[in-house]
């Protein structure tokens, strides 16, 4: 140890605490957090001030970025050159700043995350809006401090006319705190600021009428308003952002087109992650993703599979990808050097307070300069009035100092005035110049009076602030980019699907599709019909019903299992398309197939599910009644709905209220009618009770079941060779279940066996489809009511060995039908079109045994 040197023992714990506090405050105050007044961090402020001092203005030529970075590094920012260049680059990126502060030339990166070119290759200059952030800085409007080596002065804040913190936002991570502030529309912010100046007691809810929401540079949609209001009121909130997407048809394929994405989302990364989800089968319905973005704008194309539903795919993209992102607002900024959480009104208040101080300091500076000039002009005017004597005194003096002293003594002038007179040029002695001096003096005295009035009256200062803000708004204001969608919360898939009427068809081979009902047209009885579906070789339609997109579907298979699906989840196809294998939609076994289905409303509505029942029938004549509540909890792999014996299969399932009358019809032409109430509800595991006795256990079977609620309706039956009729319901007497039934149609070789039974009214239409896929649609009212035991009339002309595959009914007067909340039919003028079955849930079909 050198002589005289002292060692001071210290506690390392105390030293670490002290050093870390110093470091923390340095990061908070001098690096990571923006100042509430100009909205800038030190590095951004230094870049702009350095460009200003370097003369790289908006109207000058671009200068090499390396030169600008060197200027800032050498004079103001004692950190790495990367930090300065990165800060300058961000101020030149249109996807980073709502209002760019630097005009870059060269490669300044991209929204795909590409790095900018090295600083030696790029050039930059200030933008006009940046010049307005530095306006009047030479008029002592802000405080300056010594730079890092005490050789130069730098501003502690810029005298900005732009409310920079609100219009461009900020983000940064300090020690123990972070800030994340969204950008806003300049026009809206200026309007809000003016409203605040007019009324300092304005409520935040009133300010929100002007500053509606953040306005992101990448556009997109602000989805939901609750987070915006919370951020404006408290300084913290979560704002949900969505991409701007449209559904278009491109080259015959439906595509989702995205031309705006959420703020701070890397486009390339988003596309890559989406592709990974598609490849991993976690996101279905997309066959190809193309990035067609160019210098004209962004365009991401998601090409959909042919059976995909665009709105469902789009909703999944929002759910699983960055097409929907959130911005967590945390409005922390430095107020008088201390970090503070700020709401919207406080942000505006501190900016107005800063502008007021700038106006006061600028006016004070201008007043001082004006008074100094007036003082000199007073001396020059005195000299002008006594020009001959002044010349004589100057000529008699041996030097300038003596001349000044003599002038001061003779005319009682100040040192400054005497100096100005001595330095006055000869041309100022002319009469014209003397008039100019007096005119200038008069004008400057008016200016002095005006400037003093500004300093005396706060109202005038506020008017000046408002006028300058209006100039800024007129110069740089633009339209909002981010659209505000005020409906808060996440939309469900159902919200995005129109509740339209559709026809659901299932083929014998298990292909299913959903088609708009408008593709089917009513024809006269006896017509040949039109092609209803293109099926695969030796396949034919087996089930058909009409429902709406928002209904729930319960699928019942011949083995007695039940599966759930929403109607809109069924792939959409044209009337002639083949559809999609149902095995790809539900987890059905290979040797099982769907035999019946019903549509229900909300399965979470306890009153609804506890007041409705599912009644089922098997081909061997068993029936079973189960509460709908037993089917209200969907499972991916389905559930057992009924226990089926080895030699039997499930045929039908109907939704009822428990008060219906049930009719079962046999292939042999017999039918039975009994009260549903006499069948007690059973659990899902039961096999049911006998509903009707078969005439021949080997050859006879049940071909259909109807649940009747309207006692005025008729019973319609159709045979396999196209014969049919309708009879009065009263022709079938009510008996106990389990009997043999009565004749419902006269079965002959010409008619063939019975294949379908329906209960109908005059408002219904009948749709009949044969095995070859030909369909005919006719009005039920065109069929006359006949006796129960007759064979009926020819309904459809069959070719060769063709036979009936399916029979269904639709409403006749579609424009006069709507559903009540339970799905029951209401006949009302100008009601919406809806086609449902007699039980208000589905349009059922009956088929013969294949």
Automatic annotation (TrEMBL):
Protein keywords: ATP-binding, Coiled coil, Cytoplasm, DNA-binding, Isomerase, Nucleotide-binding, Topoisomerase
Every Topo IIA-type catalytic domain range: 33-496
Coiled-coil region list: 441-475
Single GO MF descriptor: ATP binding
KW Transcription regulation (keyword) present: no
Record-level GO cellular component terms: chromosome; cytoplasm; DNA topoisomerase type II (double strand cut, ATP-hydrolyzing) complex
Active site: 121
InterPro entries referenced in this protein's UniProt entry, alphabetically: GyrA, GyrA/parC_rep, Gyrase/topoIV_suA_C, Topo_IIA-like_dom_sf, Topo_IIA_A/C_ab, Topo_IIA_A_a_sf, Topo_IIA_dom_A, Type_II_DNA_Topoisomerases
Gene3D superfamilies for this protein: 3.30.1360.40, DNA gyrase/topoisomerase IV, subunit A, C-terminal, Topoisomerase II, domain 5, Topoisomerase, domain 3
Keyword Ribosomal protein: no
Location in the cell: Cytoplasm
Main location: cytoplasm
EC number: 5.6.2.2
Sequence similarity: Belongs to the type II topoisomerase GyrA/ParC subunit family.
Assembly: Heterotetramer composed of ParC and ParE. Heterotetramer, composed of two GyrA and two GyrB chains. In the heterotetramer, GyrA contains the active site tyrosine that forms a transient covalent intermediate with DNA, while GyrB binds cofactors and catalyzes ATP hydrolysis.
Database matches in NCBIfam families: gyrA, PRK05560.1, PRK05561.1
Protein name in UniProt: DNA gyrase subunit A
Record gene name: gyrA
């Amino acid at each position: 140890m050198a002589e005289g040197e002292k060692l001071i023992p210290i506690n390392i714990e105390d030293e670490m605490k002290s050093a870390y506090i110093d470091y923390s405050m340095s990061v908070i105050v001098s690096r990571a957090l923006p100042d509430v007044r100009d909205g800038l961090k030190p590095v951004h402020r230094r870049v702009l001030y350095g460009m200003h001092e370097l003369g790289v203005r908006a109207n000058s030529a671009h200068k090499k970025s390396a030169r600008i970075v060197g200027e800032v590094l050498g004079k103001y920012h004692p950190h790495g050159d990367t930090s300065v260049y990165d800060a300058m680059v961000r101020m030149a990126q249109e996807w980073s700043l709502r209002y760019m502060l630097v005009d870059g030339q060269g490669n300044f990166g991209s929204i795909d995350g590409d790095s900018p070119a090295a600083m030696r290759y790029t050039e930059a200059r200030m933008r006009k809006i940046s010049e307005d952030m530095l306006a009047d800085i030479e008029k002592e409007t802000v405080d300056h401090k010594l730079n890092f080596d005490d050789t130069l002065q730098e501003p502690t804040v810029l005298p900005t006319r732009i409310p920079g913190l609100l219009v461009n936002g900020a983000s940064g991570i300090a020690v123990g705190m972070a800030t994340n502030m969204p950008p806003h529309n300049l026009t809206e912010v200026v309007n809000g600021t003016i409203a605040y100046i007019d009324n300092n007691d304005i409520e935040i809810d009133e300010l929100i009428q002007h500053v509606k929401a953040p306005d992101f540079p990448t556009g997109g949609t602000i989805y939901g308003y609750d987070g915006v209001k919370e951020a404006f009121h408290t300084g913290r909130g979560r704002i949900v952002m969505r991409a701007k997407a449209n559904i278009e048809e491109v080259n015959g394929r439906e595509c989702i087109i995205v031309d705006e994405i959420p703020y701070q989302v890397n486009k390339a990364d988003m596309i890559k992650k989406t592709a990974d989800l598609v490849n991993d089968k976690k996101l279905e319905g997309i066959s190809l993703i193309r990035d067609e973005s160019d210098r004209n704008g962004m365009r991401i194309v998601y090409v959909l599979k042919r059976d995909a539903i665009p709105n469902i795919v789009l909703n999944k993209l929002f759910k699983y990808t960055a097409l929907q992102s959130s911005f967590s607002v945390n409005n922390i900024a430095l107020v008088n050097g201390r970090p503070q959480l700020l709401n919207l009104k406080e942000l505006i208040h501190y900016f107005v307070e800063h502008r007021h101080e700038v106006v006061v300091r600028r006016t004070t500076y201008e007043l001082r300069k004006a008074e100094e000039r007036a003082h000199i002009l007073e001396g020059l005017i005195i000299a002008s009035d006594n020009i001959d004597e002044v010349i004589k005194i100057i000529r008699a003096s041996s030097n300038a100092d003596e001349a000044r002293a003599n002038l001061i003594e003779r005319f009682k002038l100040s040192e400054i005035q005497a100096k100005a007179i001595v330095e006055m040029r000869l041309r100022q002695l002319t009469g014209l110049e003397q008039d100019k001096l007096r005119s200038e003096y008069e004008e400057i005295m008016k200016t002095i009076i005006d400037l003093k009035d500004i300093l005396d009256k706060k109202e005038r200062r506020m008017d000046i602030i408002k006028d300058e803000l209006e100039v800024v708004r007129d110069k740089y204001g633009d339209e909002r980019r981010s659209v505000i969608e005020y409906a808060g919360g996440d939309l469900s898939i159902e919200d995005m699907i129109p509740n339209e009427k559709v026809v659901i068809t299932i083929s014998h081979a298990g292909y299913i599709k959903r088609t708009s009902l408008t593709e089917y047209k009513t024809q006269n009885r006896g017509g040949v019909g039109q092609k209803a579906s293109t099926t695969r070789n030796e396949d034919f339609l087996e089930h058909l019903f009409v429902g709406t997109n928002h209904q729930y579907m319960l699928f019942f298979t011949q083995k007695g299992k039940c599966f759930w699906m929403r109607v809109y989840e069924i792939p959409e196809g044209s009337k002639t398309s083949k559809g999609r294998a149902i095995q790809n939609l539900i987890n059905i076994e290979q040797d099982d197939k769907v035999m019946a289905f019903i549509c229900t409303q909300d399965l979470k509505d306890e009153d609804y599910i506890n007041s409705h029942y599912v009644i089922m029938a098997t081909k061997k004549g068993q029936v079973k009644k189960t509460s709908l509540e037993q089917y209200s909890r969907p499972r991916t792999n389905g559930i057992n709905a009924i226990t089926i014996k080895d030699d039997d299969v499930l045929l039908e399932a109907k939704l009822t209220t428990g008060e219906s009358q049930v009719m079962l019809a046999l292939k042999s032409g017999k039918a039975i009618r009994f009260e549903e109430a006499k069948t007690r509800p059973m659990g899902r595991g039961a096999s049911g009770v006998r509903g009707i006795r078969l005439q021949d256990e080997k050859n006879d079977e049940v071909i259909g079941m109807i649940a009747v609620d309207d006692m005025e309706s008729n019973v319609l039956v159709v045979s396999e060779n196209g014969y049919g009729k309708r009879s009065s319901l009263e022709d079938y007497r009510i008996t106990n279940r389990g009997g043999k039934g009565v004749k419902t149609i006269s079965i002959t070789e010409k008619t063939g066996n019975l294949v379908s039974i329906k209960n109908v009214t005059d408002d219904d239409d009948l749709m009949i489809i044969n095995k070859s896929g030909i369909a005919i649609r006719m009005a039920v009212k065109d069929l006359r009511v006949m006796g129960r035991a007759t064979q009926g009339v020819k309904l459809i002309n069959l070719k060769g060995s063709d036979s009936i595959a399916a029979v269904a009914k639709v409403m006749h007067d579609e424009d006069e039908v709507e559903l009540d909340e339970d799905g029951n039919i209401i006949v009302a003028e100008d009601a919406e079109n809806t086609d449902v079955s007699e039980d208000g849930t589905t349009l059922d079909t009956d088929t013969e045994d294949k």
